[in-house]
C-alpha cells in the first residue's frame, strides 16, 4: 500500500504535468521560453486602410519557404494575408539587436520602398492574435538645400517590440521603427541593409479578459465618446413638439367626425373618411411585387442587425476579431433569408388579387402523378 506522502508527491507531479500541458497558443497560455506565434499580415497606405497588399510584396526579409496561414471566409473578405515570419518571440525572453537578415537592395527594390514611404505605408502583424502596426519608413523634406532640394527617404531597418504580460499570458504588444537606425535610400543606387529587431518584455496588472479594451478605445475618438447631452435633449424636444403638432392637426380636422361617431349608432359609423379608409385598406397597391420584396428585405436586414447587436453585447464580436464580423454577417444573411421570403410571401397572399396558389401532387397507380392547381381567395 502506498504511503500518504507518496500519494501527495504523485498528486503534485500530476498537477504540474497538467499545468505544463495546458500551455499552448490555442488557449493563450505560455511557459517561459516557449515560442509565441507571430504572423505578418499586410501593408498599405495609412490614409486608405481599404487598400492593402501582401507583406512580402515589399522586398523585406523573407523566410524559406513562405507558409501562408489557412484563413476563414471572414479573413479573406477582410483582406488578411497571414504568413510566417523570420521574427522569433520566446515568452518573457528579451532579445536585443537580433539580426533578421542582410540584403543588398537593388535600384528597383529601392524604388518600391520609396513609393511605399511616399504614401505612408504601414505594416500589420499578429502576435498571439493581437494586432500591431508600425510604419516602414519616414519622409523628410530637405529645406536646407539651396533651390529647394527633393525629399529624403529613410527606411526603418530596426523594429523594437514592447510586449506586456500578466502571469503566463500576453496582454499588449507595440512595434516601433527606430528613426535613429534608418537607412537613407534617397539616391537611386544599391544599398546594403541589415534588418534587426529587439523584443522587450514587461509585466502589467491588466487582466487577460481586458486586453482588447485598448483597441475599442482606439477605434473611437475621444470626442465621439463624449455624450452631447444638449443635442440629445434638443432632439427629444423637437420630436415631442412634432408629435404634438401632428396630433393637434389631426384632432382639428377629425373633431367633427369623432363627435359624430361617439353619438351615432354603429351602423352609421361607415361615413366620411372612415368609409374611404375601409375601401382602400385592402386594395392592392401599385407595383405590389416590388413593395413586398422591399418589405421582406427590410425584415431580413432588421433581424440581421438585431442578432449582430446581441452578439456584440454578449462579447462574441469585438474589435479586431480577425474576420469574425464578416463570418457572422455572411452566415446570418443566408439564414435570415428565410424570414425575408416568408414576410414577402405573407404580404403577397394578403394583398394579391388571386390569393394563394397551392400546388398539390396526388400519386396514382402506374407511377403517374396528376397536378392540380387550387386557388383559394384570401378572406
TrEMBL record:
It is a multi-pass membrane protein. Keywords: Endosome, Golgi apparatus, Membrane, Signal, Transmembrane, Transmembrane helix. It is found in: Endosome membrane; Golgi apparatus membrane. The chain crosses the membrane at residues 229-251, 290-313, 325-345. InterPro entries: EMP70. Belongs to the nonaspanin (TM9SF) (TC 9.A.2) family. This is Transmembrane 9 superfamily member. It comes from Glycine max.
Amino acid at each position: 500500500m502506498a504511503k500518504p506522502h507518496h500519494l501527495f508527491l504523485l498528486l503534485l507531479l500530476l498537477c504540474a504535468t497538467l499545468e505544463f500541458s495546458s500551455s499552448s497558443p490555442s488557449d493563450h497560455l505560455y511557459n517561459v521560453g516557449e515560442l509565441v506565434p507571430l504572423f505578418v499580415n499586410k501593408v498599405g497606405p495609412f490614409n486608405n486602410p481599404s487598400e492593402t497588399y501582401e507583406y512580402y510584396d515589399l522586398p523585406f526579409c523573407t523566410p524559406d519557404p513562405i507558409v501562408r496561414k489557412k484563413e476563414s471566409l471572414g479573413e479573406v473578405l477582410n483582406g488578411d494575408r497571414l504568413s510566417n515570419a523570420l521574427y522569433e518571440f520566446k515568452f518573457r525572453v528579451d532579445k536585443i539587436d537580433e539580426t533578421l537578415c542582410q540584403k543588398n537592395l537593388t535600384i528597383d527594390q529601392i524604388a518600391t520602398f520609396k513609393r511605399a514611404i511616399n504614401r505612408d505605408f504601414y505594416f500589420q502583424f499578429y502576435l498571439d492574435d493581437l494586432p500591431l502596426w508600425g510604419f516602414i519608413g519616414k519622409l523628410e523634406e530637405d529645406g536646407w538645400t539651396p533651390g529647394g532640394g527633393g525629399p529624403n527617404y529613410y527606411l526603418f531597418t530596426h523594429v523594437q517590440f514592447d510586449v506586456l504580460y500578466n502571469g503566463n499570458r500576453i496582454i499588449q504588444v507595440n512595434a516601433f521603427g527606430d528613426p535613429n537606425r534608418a537607412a537613407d535610400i534617397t539616391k537611386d543606387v544599391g544599398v546594403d541593409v541589415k534588418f534587426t529587431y529587439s523584443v522587450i518584455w514587461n509585466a502589467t496588472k491588466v487582466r487577460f479578459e481586458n486586453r482588447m479594451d485598448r483597441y475599442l478605445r482606439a477605434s473611437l475618438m475621444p470626442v465621439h465618446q463624449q455624450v452631447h447631452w444638449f443635442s440629445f435633449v434638443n432632439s427629444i424636444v423637437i420630436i415631442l413638439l412634432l408629435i404634438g403638432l401632428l396630433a393637434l392637426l389631426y384632432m382639428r380636422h377629425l373633431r367633427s367626425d369623432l363627435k359624430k361617431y361617439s353619438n351615432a349608432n354603429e351602423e352609421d359609423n361607415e361615413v366620411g373618411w372612415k368609409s374611404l379608409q375601409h375601401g382602400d385598406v385592402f386594395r392592392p397597391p401599385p407595383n405590389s411585387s416590388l413593395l413586398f420584396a422591399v418589405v421582406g428585405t427590410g425584415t431580413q436586414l432588421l433581424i440581421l442587425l438585431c442578432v449582430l447587436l446581441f452578439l456584440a453585447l454578449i462579447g462574441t464580436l469585438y474589435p479586431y476579431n480577425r474576420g469574425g464580423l464578416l463570418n457572422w454577417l455572411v452566415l446570418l444573411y443566408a439564414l435570415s433569408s428565410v424570414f425575408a421570403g416568408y414576410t414577402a410571401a405573407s404580404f403577397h397572399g394578403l394583398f394579391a388579387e388571386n390569393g394563394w396558389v397551392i400546388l398539390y401532387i396526388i400519386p396514382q397507380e402506374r407511377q403517374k402523378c396528376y397536378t392540380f392547381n387550387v386557388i383559394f381567395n384570401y378572406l
